[in-house]
Structures are given as structure tokens and as C-alpha cells.
């Protein structure tokens, strides 16, 4: 299955699709790229909103989109999730599990856009120790733009197993250096999911098809198939170790 694991398609939820018309246009683009399922991951910021309020807004947007999307031929399956911004005490919130993807125990976690220093690693270690959910790091390549080396990214795994999601744009539009780094991550089996992180049809549009072609041409069909299979395993709520060991 081709699964878009990161998108901002739900209408009026965040800085993504402003309305239903834009949402449907984005879904049609994904359909044209033969995407089978899309995880709807609007931004969640604990410092700005309660989980209960976010979930209510998300459900209302999802109902509108689901009804309208039934008119789209070969529309991808719609799966609810969230892009959860890292907040040290969030893993202790009794409703934290409600932000998981679909019926899984996986959380898509967005890390701070900054260079990772010891105080951040310390905060993340406490978060990880308290967290009963399994973590997927959102758009792992973005943190390379803030002075973080690949080794700084890999240090995150010292605090417990987690998975990595990569944005399609990191291959389709990124600098040559970042593109080479991410292709190496793909070849080394560090990427378990890809997402368009699409916000509209014009600004950060869905680029799943372009990313697929680059992965296949540079890393081989097996690398792309591995990502697809691991993504299916996430949606089936397979264990972290089982997913990581799938080659």
C-alpha cells in the first residue's frame, strides 16, 4: 500500500487546507499518484489548546471531508491522526493516547526546530520514559536544517525505540546535500514512512509520486517496498521491534 503518513488536508483545522474545496483537490492529487491511504495529521499544540477541544474540531472537519470525499473516484482511505508538537509534560496527560494514529498506539511527534542541546535531550528522555505510546518522528530531515548532524538525530534513539517519517519534498525539492543524506537514510532502512506534509495544491502540494520515483531510481524498488510494508505494519499496530527488523 502507498500510504501518505503526514498531511494537512482536513479543512480549516490549521495552516493546511483552508476549505473543503481545497481538501478535495488535494485528495484528487493523491489519488492520481495511486496513494491508497492518507493519514490526516493536523497540528496539535498543547500550549494553545486542550486535547478535548482539538478532538472535537477534528471530528467535525473529518465528517465534512468524509461525506464529500465519497464523490472522488479511487479516493484514498482517510485515517485520523495528529502532528503533535513536543511538549515535555504531554505524555503524562490522561488523554494523550487519543492523539494516536487510527486505532494504533503510534503518535506522530514534531520536535522543536532548533539545534538539539543537552537540555532538549534531557526533556525528551523524561518524555520518553513517561510515554506509553510508540513514537514516529515527523519529517526527520527538517531537523538537519538547524545545525543538527545525522548523529544528533540518531542520539534520539538512545532513549527508546522510535520510527522516522520523511517528507516527500525532502527528495523532490531539497538541496543536493540533504537529498543525499535522506536517500542514505532510506537505503539504510531508517525511514519507515513517507508523507507529503501537503498544505495546499500550490503551497507544499502533495508530491508522493515524485518521491516514489526518486526512491525507486536511487535506492531500488526494494527500498520503496520496505517503506510501504512498514507503513502497513504501523497501521496494523505492529510492535516497534518487528517493524524495525523488517528488511
What characteristics describe this protein?
247 residues; alpha/beta; 6-stranded parallel sheet; 9 helices
Task: Describe what you observe in this structure.
The chain has about 250 residues and is an alpha/beta fold. It is about 40% helix and about 15% strand. The chain has helices at about 20-30, 50-70, 120-130, 150-155, 170, 175-185, 210-220, 220-235, 240-245, and strands at about 5, 35-40, 45, 75-80, 85, 105-110, 135, 165, 195. Strand 1, helix 1 (about 20-30) and strand 2 (about 35-40) form a beta-alpha-beta unit. Helix 7 (about 210-220) crosses helix 8. The longest helix is centred in the first third of the chain and has 19 residues, at about 50-70. The model has no long low-confidence stretch (mean pLDDT about 95).
Average pLDDT rating:
94
Order of helices and strands: EHEEHEEEHEHEHHEHHH
Overall shape: it is globular
Count the E strands.
Answer: 9
Spans of 5+ residues with little confidence (pLDDT < 50)?
A: none
Fraction of residues in helix: 25-40%
Number of helices: 9
Percent of residues in beta strands: 5-15%
What's the arrangement of strands in the largest beta sheet?
3-5-6-7-8-9
The protein's oligomeric status is: single chain
- Rg (C-alpha, Å): 17 Å
Structural class: alpha/beta
For the sheet with most strands, the description reads: 6 strands, parallel
Q: Distance N terminus to C terminus?
A: 16 Å
How is the topology of this model organized?
Layout: E1 3-7, H1 20-32, E2 37-40, E3 43-44, H2 51-69, E4 77-80, E5 83-85, E6 106-110, H3 118-130, E7 134-137, H4 150-154, E8 163-167, H5 169-172, H6 176-187, E9 193-195, H7 208-219, H8 221-235, H9 240-244
Parallel strand pairs: 1-2, 2-4, 3-5, 5-6, 6-7, 7-8, 8-9
Amino acid at each position: 500500500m502507498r500510504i501518505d503518513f503526514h498531511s494537512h488536508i482536513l479543512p480549516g483545522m490549521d495552516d493546511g487546507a483552508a476549505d473543503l474545496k481545497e481538501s478535495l483537490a488535494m485528495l484528487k492529487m493523491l489519488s492520481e499518484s495511486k496513494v491508497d491511504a492518507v493519514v490526516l495529521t493536523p497540528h496539535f499544540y498543547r500550549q494553545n489548546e486542550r486535547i478535548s477541544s482539538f478532538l472535537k474540531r477534528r471530528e467535525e472537519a473529518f465528517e465534512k471531508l468524509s461525506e464529500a470525499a465519497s464523490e472522488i473516484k479511487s479516493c484514498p482511505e482517510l485515517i485520523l491522526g495528529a502532528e503533535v508538537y513536543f511538549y515535555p509534560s504531554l505524555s503524562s496527560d490522561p488523554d494523550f493516547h487519543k492523539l494516536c494514529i487510527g486505532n494504533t498506539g503510534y503518535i506522530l511527534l514534531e520536535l522543536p526546530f532548533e539545534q538539539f542541546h543537552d537540555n532538549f535531550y534531557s526533556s525528551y528522555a523524561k518524555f520518553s520514559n513517561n510515554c506509553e505510546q510508540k513514537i514516529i518522528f515527523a519529517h526527520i530531515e527538517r531537523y538537519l536544517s538547524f545545525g543538527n548532524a545525522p548523529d544528533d538525530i540518531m542520539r534520539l534513539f538512545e532513549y527508546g525505540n522510535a520510527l522516522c517519517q520523511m517528507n516527500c519534498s525532502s527528495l523532490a525539492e531539497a538541496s543536493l546535500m540533504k537529498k543525499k543524506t535522506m536517500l542514505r537514510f532510506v537505503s539504510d532502512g531508517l525511514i519507515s514512512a513517507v508523507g507529503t506534509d501537503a498544505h495546499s495544491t500550490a503551497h507544499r502540494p502533495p508530491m508522493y509520486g515524485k518521491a516514489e520515483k526518486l526512491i525507486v531510481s536511487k535506492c531500488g524498488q526494494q527500498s520503496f517496498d520496505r517503506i510501504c510494508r512498514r507503513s502497513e505494519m504501523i497501521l496494523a499496530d505492529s510492535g516497534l521491534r518487528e517493524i524495525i527488523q523488517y528488511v
